[in-house]
Amino acid sequence: MCNEFFEHFEHPVNPEYIAEPLWQPPIPVSCFTIPGMRVYAWLEAGEFRFGPGITGCFSTTCDRSWLVEWVKRVGREEAEKTLAEKMPYGTLLHGERAKYDRDRMYNLDECLKVVNMFQMTHDVPEWVNPRRWAQDLRQDMLAYQLWFQRVQFEPLAVEIPLRSKKYGVATRIDAFGMITIGSEGYYLSGKKQGQPKGDLLRKYACIDTKSSRKNYSSNEHAMQVLFGEHLIKENFPYTQEEEILLFNWSPKDWTANPDYTFKQHYKKSEAKALAWEELEMCIMLTKLRTKYTKGQLVISGEMTPGTDVTTLYQKRSYLDMIRDELLADLPEELRGCVA
User: Fold this and answer.
1) β-strand 244-251 against 200-209: which pairing, if any?
2) φ, ψ for residue 152, nearest 5 deg
3) 255-293 burial by CB neighbour count: b if 16+ within 10 A, else e?
4) Beta bridge partners of 10
């Protein structure tokens, strides 16, 4: 077992919630973070397979000029400080939202305790004020509950890890379930803001959570849930003919009344088809550009005066180490059968 050499690993990645066995992932997927990249890996049909996460595909191929301009505007030091705080808070919000989806209840009085525990187990900057984070979390969770009630969300699978056999890419889908939507969408303002407009319809929906309160939506956000739709239909063939709506949800920086942004993507089939072509290009370019040749100097064993030091260290590739992690769960007689 060489898991101590990974920055982070989940073996296997377990869904936060599954409504019924119908939505159990057909293939267990593991996730490993190594320097510079996140790798998903799985065993399928007697073969060891691996690939990037879909967000990694976007980060290596999509236009990031907006990020460069932002860094120029605020300065590198401020940009690094902001990202160092925003990224772990996003992880925190994802986890707490998933708890609400699973348990259908949430104790706001426990938020400070939750934040303190999170800081102990995650890489959170030392300047973060846990009381401020706890207040942010209370506000964001109230906004989520308001949305949950308005669309009458029925979670079917939460934080579900799925791989694409076709593309060799994997990710976790934040939330997949049924929502109530109006035949005319949702009211955008007024007393009924956020509620279904027109005839009530129950639809499947893929929903990706973003923690930013600035109502920012990018092409990458849209393509991420588009790939989520593909994963659902590839892994659960009985959904092939079903319409799956695609959304991003994010909290707003509210003070008087809870509020959020709920954005639907690809209402027109033409835009969806064009986006899919771009998404496939992102995946192809990522596979061409990514070299899985990095490794680690592994030093282990017991030293004695007569020990041959060459037996105590070896340079191993991360892929070999990941493969060992997956094979460790198999009976010894089966390990040699995996290609």
Assistant:
1) parallel
2) 50, 55
3) eeebbbbebebbeeeeeeeebbeebeebbeebeeebeee
4) 31
What is the distance between the alpha carbons of residues 68 and 222, in angstroms, rounded to a whole number? 21
Instruction: List Cα–Cα distances, 146 to 1, 109, 139, 200, 210, in angstroms.
Output: 45, 18, 11, 18, 16
Report the distance separating Cα 198 and Cα 182, nearest Å.
5
Tens digits of per-residue pLDDT, 126-171? 999 999 999 999 999 999 999 999 999 999 999 999 999 999 999 9
pTM for the model = 0.90
Please give the full DSSP string across 171-222, using - where no structure is assigned: EEEEEEEEEEEETTBB--SSTTTTSB-SSEEEEEEEEEE---SS----HHHH
Q: What is the DSSP letter of 278?
A: H
- Cis check for the bond before 12: say yes or no (omega within 30 of 0): yes
Chain position carrying tokens 């340079």 = 315
> Cβ of 165: how many Cβ atoms within 10 Å?
14
For 266, list phi and psi in degrees, rounded to 5: 55, 55
Task: Determine the Cα–Cα distance for residues 161 and 11; give it in Å rounded to an integer.
Answer: 11
